[in-house]
Design goal:
It contains three helices and three strands. With 115 residues, it is α+β, with helices and mostly antiparallel strands. The protein has a three-stranded antiparallel beta sheet with strand order 1-2-3, with no helix packed on it.
């Protein structure tokens, strides 16, 4: 553990040290590695989060607000809402995209594809 920690300039924390040990064929638990690292005084460096500040009220070019906060359509198929999300299955992750008719509340279209 100390060699791995030193080899990576003291950056790796217990989860990544555990992964490295696992790939090297060492059989040990994640919590055991964390416990031993605490006892040895080894500590990883946390990653910095990259925050981007957006100017409020500005939109990228070509993006228009067609609904203008009016979510009550007067006829079917005049206003749709959509969302894209990830779904984890036993085999892999899927993209799931759903299009919803805001008038009836029914799903108009549904599409999925492996990530």
């Amino acid at each position: 553990m100390r060699d791995l920690h030193a080899q990576h300039d003291g950056v790796l924390g217990s989860p990544r040290i555990w992964e490295e040990l696992r790939y090297a064929g060492e059989g040990c638990g994640r919590h055991r590695v964390a416990h031993l690292m605490r006892q040895a005084g080894l500590q990883g460096v946390p990653q910095r989060r990259c925050w981007r500040r957006k100017a409020s009220g500005t939109r990228p070019g070509g993006v228009h607000n067609h609904l203008d906060r009016e979510f009550q359509p007067t006829a079917p198929n005049t206003k749709w809402a959509t969302d894209i999300t990830y779904v984890r299955t036993t085999e892999h992750w899927l993209y799931l995209c759903i299009v919803l008719d805001m008038y009836s509340g029914k799903i108009t279209s549904c599409w999925s594809k492996p990530c």
